[in-house]
Amino acid sequence: MAEQRARGLFITLEGGEGSGKSTQVKRLGARLDAAGHEVVLTREPGGSPGAEVIRELLVTGDPDRWDGMTEALLMFAARRDHVQRVIKPALGGGKIVISDRFADSSMAYQGYGHGLGRETIEQLYVTTLGDFRPDLTFIFDLPVDEGLKRANARGSNRFEGMDVAFHHRLRDGFLYIAKLEPERCHIIDASGTEDQVEDRLSAIVLKAIEAGNA
Ligand code: TMP
Questions:
Q1: Dihedral sign, CA of 23, 24, 25, 29?
Q2: Distance spanning both ends of the chain, measured CA to CA
Q3: How confident is the model at residue 175 (pLDDT cuts 50, 70, 90)?
Q4: Whose CA is nearest to atom 10 of ligand 1?
Q5: What is the helix (H) or strand (E) element at residue 145, kind and residue range?
Q6: CA distance 208 to 11
Q7: What is the pLDDT of residues 191-214, one digit of tens each?
Q8: Which has the least CB within 10 A, 27, 97, 98, 206?
């Protein structure tokens, strides 16, 4: 059993549609679990009972069901509940929490994709979450057409129906976020096999855990 951490570790996986991060959340969780860590796997939007109800409103229906601002408010309402009821208690118990998406998705999708802008998303963030931040974030990067091809093959949600220009804005947005916060954010090349991507991801996570600086 690995030593219990005084405060857990909060890891988020981010990226566009079809980038394979949901598979990698499970693979990383299994690796860390096998190494003796207590791991909590979760996702956004959702992750707590209340936030899952809000998720249903967000991922179903027509692409124009909500405008960008309403969508952002729903995302942050869900996120606040998720953080308060699931993430913070788990971190307080020394666990490693791995979330399939978190607030960088709001910056990329609503901030850049829908054009709400950085400042609006930052204001919503501070109002709902204060200075709470992930310790480590992985941005799964893939050319837009490849991601959409993969996503369409597995069935689509509301966001996959947005136009291709939207998906280009969000890919550029994610890359810009990584550039602004290089300490927290690592870009993962999401091309190749699932095993190759897992190796790229877990190498960085294990190094950060060993160094004790994440
Ligand atoms: P997913 O479970 O397939 O990742 O679907 C969730 C969708 O919600 C995905 O298309 C991205 C979108 N999303 C946002 O637009 N903003 C957010 O803040 C989050 C967490 C997700």
A1: positive
A2: 19
A3: very high
A4: 159
A5: helix 144-153
A6: 11
A7: 999 999 999 999 999 998 988 744
A8: 206
CA of 212 to the centre of ligand 1 (A): 30
The whole-angstrom separation of Cα 212 and Cα 110 is: 34
Token match 């707590």: residue? 48
pTM tops 0.70, yes or no: yes
Rounded Cα–Cα distance for residues 191 and 204 (Å)? 17
| Nearest alpha-carbon partner for 104 in 125, 90, 123, 74 | 125
Q: Which amino acid is at 120?
A: T
Q: What is the DSSP letter of 12?
A: E
> Which atom, in ligand 1's list, is nearest to the CA of 157?
10
Is-contact 139 188, C-beta < 8 A? yes
Q: Which residue has the higher pLDDT, 50 or 153?
A: 50
Does the pLDDT value for residue 156 go beyond 80?
no
Q: Which two structure tokens, joined as six digits, stand for 206?
A: 């294990």
Task: Order across the sheet with 9-15: list the strands.
Answer: 39-43, 96-100, 9-15, 136-141, 185-189
Among 101, 106, 154, the mutation site with the greatest number of ligand 1 atoms within 8 A of its Cβ is 101
Rounded to 5 degrees, what are φ and ψ at 33?
-60, -45
Closest CA to 105 of 121, 86, 85, 119: 121
Rounded distance between C-alpha atoms, residue 199 and residue 107, angstroms:
27
**How many CB atoms neighbour CB 127 within 10 A?**
10
